[in-house]
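Board notes, transcribed. Complex of a protein with adenosine-5'-diphosphate.
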Amino acid sequence: MSVTASSVWKNCLAFIKDNIQPQAFKTWFEPIKPIKLSENALSIQVPSKFFYEWLEEHYVKLLKVALTKELGEKAKLVYIIRMENTYGNREPFTEKIPSANRGGMTPQEMDVPIKSKNPELRNPFVIPGIRNIKIESQLNPNYNFDNFLEGDSNRLARSAGMAVANKPGGTSFNPLLVFGGVGLGKTHLAHAIGVEIKDKYPERTVLYISAEKFTQQYIESVKKNTRNDFIHFYQLIDVLIIDDVQFLSGKSGTQDVFFHIFNHLHQNGKQVILTSDKAPVDMQDIEQRLLSRFKWGLSAELQNPDYETRISILKNKLYRDGVEMPNDIVEYVAKHIKTNIRELEGAIISLIAQSSFNKKEVTLELAQSVVEKFVKNTKREVSIDYIQKVVSDYFEMDVATLQSKTRKRHIVQARQLAMFFAKKFTKASLASIGSQIGKRDHATVLHACKTVDNLAETDKQFRKYIDDLTKKFS
Ligand code: ADP
Ligand code: MG
């Protein structure tokens, strides 16, 4: 009669059942599945890492005795933790999913050999550091530091990212919060840091996840009563990267759970990397205690790339794709797409496609029409400088006057209008508007916006200023 994984496990279970409470048996042993037997090693599948830890903590002796009875002194136990690739839809710790549904998930294995040389050891299993567990990091290797070009706009964030990658958890940049507008490279940089860490420290557990997916997982865990597993899973990670944390705004349950996970990781010297489309001061509906944590480390902004950086990003893209394109075309694209690197790339990809499908030279005309499409589709953002210039011209003063400290009424009004339009037509934060319009603080900008709103309703002349200026911006 041949010995199989099932037969070995069945005998182990019989022994275990006789030795523990029925409820404990039901909870901790029934869900285990024997998977395979090779030589002296029995592989069993457990539903979560938390589950594995629990077994290790509470039933390690019992397991050893049972297994040794079946397989002899050289018995080995291999845990397989079913964890899902989080690109799918479910949470990484899967519970009670019928085995038929398990396609697409990757088994995570870890070796837990029973040591036979030291039988007097209280714990006969070598409990592996949790870091031996392989968690799919969800990193995209195409987003790395090599192809994240440096420029003035991203220098601080990029070097902070490098520093963190060199010493995860070991710098004062913890958490590292990278913030900036759409398409400026937050996701790319976040992956690059993770990829670099994986490269330097392959044994560390790195996980990249969007705040949205994190939220979904959390909600699922509450539904399925596995909130503890959820928390445990995240607390085991060495480097946690959460993209677009502004998504957590208004979601107090997820914020709460993240707060606890964050504290645990931080206290244990683990690295947290966050991205957001806003600076912490401008985040709304995020709990104060969480915001204050975000500020513990470093907040680094990704700004709009300057012209030189835009050129080098385009040239690099062309180079990597092995495509040649005349300089004047590249310059034209860089000159006209300023605030979004994704659009910059999109335009050049579109040009490459057109030229290769139609087998014709890319002309400046073609470039113009492509760029126009990109720019039109995305309501081009006016700059704060431009707004100040237009408002100053309208009131026949120069920009320096508009920014000056004077309390003269017509100048104050011009300044307030500039702030109002900057708030209305750009995505800049109150703080950043204030600092660009005469070095004022965010409260001044807020006050300006309210004043303009009030005057718009009560003062006919003022209303006309607003209407005239609005026309100039659209
Ligand atoms: P965000 O997450 O801020 O919206 P992404 O990280 O998705 O922006 O970046 C948008 C695109 O621009 C990506 O294709 C990315 O590779 C590219 N990109 C952004 N910054 C750089 C950079 N400094 N060098 C090269 N490519 C960049
Ligand atoms: Mg992104």
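The pocket of magnesium ion (ligand 2) is lined by residues 186-187, 243-244 (CB under 6 Å). The chain has a mean pLDDT of 84.
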